[in-house]
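Shipment paperwork, digital attachment
Item: protein structure file
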Amino acid sequence: MDKQWKRRDFVVAASAAAIGSAQGATVSSGEPALLGGKPVRNQPFLSWPVADEREDRAIVDVVHSKKWNRNAGGRVDQFEAAYAKLTGAKHCLATANGTGALLTSVGVLDIGPGDEVIVPPYTFIATVNVLLMRHALPVFVDTNLETFQIDTGRIERALTSNTRAIIPVHLGGGAADIDSVMAIAHKRNVPVIEDACQAHLAEYKGLKVGTYGQAGCFSFQASKNLNSGEGGAILSNDENFIEDCYAFHNNSHGRKASGLVSYSKPGANLRLTEFQAAMLMAQMTRLDAQSKTREQNAQYLTSLLREIPGIQPARLTEGCTRNAYHLYMFRYSADQFSGLPRTGFLKALRAEGVPASGGYAPLNREPFLKNTFESRAYVRVYGKKRLAEVQEMNLACPQNDRLCKEAVWFTQNMLLGTRSDMDQIAEAINKIRANGAKLARA
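Attachment content:
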């Protein structure tokens, strides 16, 4: 035994194994469902979204008000005040979607042609799309294989005199190493835009993510833990910044403008409607309770999956005091499953009644990025030499390449069930492992 593995760690691991065995995480050696056997689960997980008469009343009230667009003192204003209070931010601005929150933040910071922005490659495409819309240059920094978050130890070497911002992503509901990001940002005097679109109520050192940087951007799209179909928000502790964001998202028309319309800066129509704000207010009444259920089930599931060779749950960043678990993520090793490839594992898992996906493909290797870098506009702004340098750097993300081949995701609604649901997930994985060779041959 490794001498560095303390007795306390051994006791914790042993206890987790005993608890898992006692509560039903058994190893099933029956015929895999993919090969005609009985599936572990024959009922779907909790459907999403969750709604009841609260949402019904909210929508009907807006209809009857006949004030459907954003209006002073209306539901959008009320949501902004409530979300700022919930997160501990001084200011909140609601937007049409999470992409709009990111685009507004990038626009107000005047990030555009000639500017470089640090981003992780393991993220949704919107993180990069908003930069391309502004003709800025995304510079990718590799992923931490253990946490699935940006590897902050590699950020400084990617900075240049043209770096205008850092966009860390709090992926899957966990927290990036925001202390390290902020230290680098302060040292180099560049703003931080936190992409917290998947991290509602997540915390780093007891403070909500999205409240550390110049801006924290959230999404309320249909799959998100706080959901209004579409929607987004920007958090900031800078009043001037949030007022500029208001003008940008309101087609350049500021909140404090007089009756005479004057436009000082470019912008777009990225406003949230009263309908969406009303839905968000109703959804927020159950947000904290749902978040706690996800966290408790995720912790229990982790205690079970850690006991299965070849399954490695994502590790929380040191300092992450609350994970929102928009996604439950782990890495899969085919070597421990008799060579069964990940595609086969996912297919077998779904057949057992446990839906799963392989997560993101390497965003930094997408053909549209190469095409963009070779476009007339980008060549004119950056020159072929700099674009070739960045392209070479962007492709050198070996940890992310590996992660994209090994990752497995469960969606947040799967964590809203019971411990028995978690036991069945572990049972299904154990069953697949016990039959790995047979499945691999098939």
